Amino acid sequence: MNTNTIQLDDSKTLWERWQRNAERNPDREAIVHWVAGEEPFRWTYKNLIETAKKFSVKIKEAGIKKGDVCAIIMHHNPYFYPLYMGISRAGALPAVLAYPNPRLHPDKFRQGIEGMSQRSGLDYILTEKDLDPIIRPLIEKPESTIKSVFFPLEWNFKDEVDPQADREIEQISKTVKETEPMLLQHSSGTTGLQKPVVLSHCAILNHVVNLGSGYNLTDKDKIVSWLPLYHDFGLIACFQIPLAYGITTIQINPFEWVLAPILLLEAVTKEKATLTCLPNFAYNVLAEKIHEDELEEVNLESLRLIVNAAEPVRHDSHQKFISKFQKYGLNPLALAVMYGMAEVTLGLTVTDSGKPITELAVDRNELSLGRMKLAGAGSVVRVCVSSGRPLNGCQARIVDENRKDLPDGTVGEVAVKSVSMFDGYRNYPEKTAEVVDNGWYFSGDYGFKYNDEFFIIGRKKDLIIVAGKNIYPEDIEDVINQVEGIIPGRVISFGEEDEAMGTEQVAVVAETKAESDKEKNDLRLAILKAGMGMDINIHKVYLVPPRWLIKSSAGKPSRKANKERILSREDKQVWSR
Amino acid sequence: MISPELKKVILSELDLDDFDLQDTTIAPEVPGWDSLNHVNIILAVEKFFNVKFKSYEVLRLKNVGDLQTLVNSKTGK
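Structure tokens for the assembled complex are given below, as produced in the milestone run.
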């Protein structure tokens, strides 16, 4: 055992753990809040807990009670963290939501929050003053579950906490049981179809132990992240895990990172970070979109673990990353892969840290028939990257359409079980029943098992994952169906591989009677604008004549069949741009 | 004032025939110009004008007018 391995205590709630961490190491840095071009804001454990206590008193004064769901919609701000913790201390459930992009139409944003509140039962929104005019109409609606909106950044924290109020909150905090809900996160980022996942304190605390052990975490580790905290990869791996372990996390503004990817490398170099988490596309961006002369001072020697998750892992992306950064101190063995989902808190399988990731060159044609066969002479090769073995407390198996086990090397659906399983989708029992059976969660992902390792190769569900963000095609199709010039109901959307960016991009296929090039270009622009209104970038538009789309047995256009037909690029009737 | 050259590079990268790019135009107003694509547009502008921007210069850009000013400062205009 590594001498720096952290012995976790027997805390029953996250608040209890955070407090104990602050007592043990009051002056240790908890969160380094990174802002481009400025000195970072540094929270020690002691300061963080004290400020969280102040927030918790304000939260109680605001009328927020144990069990209430509090959506936090904020920009990258150093006070986000103690606010989140203060909500938890008061026994309420924090739920982090994305701050709306300027391109997102206010109606669409409200519609998303409304849909979410009906499912999740959002009780309060804690946000910034700028959003008041957009959010206020939601609260005033008679059927709204949202009771009020608050602006915590406007609260006064200069005064000391009233000891009586503090004691009252501590008492409330002590009534929270480990089996009670701690947080609510959403399984997808788009508007209409989010599935609210509730996680208990014990699910998270168990996961902290198991994922921390999978990462071989020690008290020397520092986790750096630019991932948004409304995403489970950011929230659990880069916020909950370090704080529960009592180590340091460095938080970079996601909006700044995407404009200046070098920020991550700067933060690693200056803070000597040891661990980071990246969706696959970020490997391409870091490897190919930064000028060499900006990298002169970059040193990645401290990084011992770089975890790829949240979207399909691509062999080429890893190769590009290694070949670019080895000369800046990158250890190729630092690369690792994780597979998981919000429904099991986050991680399910992970590759061994410090060891090469298993990659299999397999026959692509055999794989499409559901069989893994190592490539031979004449094979069209696909390189499958391992997602590793199940973490402690987790199980995985590959099943057929009747949910019966399949032998190793056969492609099927990945079914999973974990001690950190969710308690079902909140207020959505019919959806929970669809995917959970006898304690197993049926993920909708396709993969195979080989030599005890799991390889994820595709999805049963039609989810599109762009740069780690989950998008449901139904959301896009609903909007595009309303574009003038499109034949209503005759639209499909799918994810199209973008090798250069190492991710999927959104493609739309729509039937139209438009014939001239000008009409089709105008229609494409209208489709792009409709996508913008819901903050989705439609990368490619395919226009086809009436009755072109193949229908499924249910009578609706089939995404799978039409995607294959489009990508075969054989039909001259298809107009694309 | 956005130069015809800068406009051409941006629209070409976004595969748009035309779009009214003004000094005050911000990326979210332009079809296809999202955060993922932003880095590609910046690289295309650098390539066309044979200039290099520092990451912090890119971070400070608020609108297309700022990008034009940055291009001008690099090309000595």
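The CA atoms of residues 25 and 35 of chain B lie 15 Å apart. Chain B touches chain A at residues 15-17, 26, 28-29, 31-32, 34-40, 43, 52, 54-56, 58-59 (CB under 8 Å). Further analysis is deferred to the final report.
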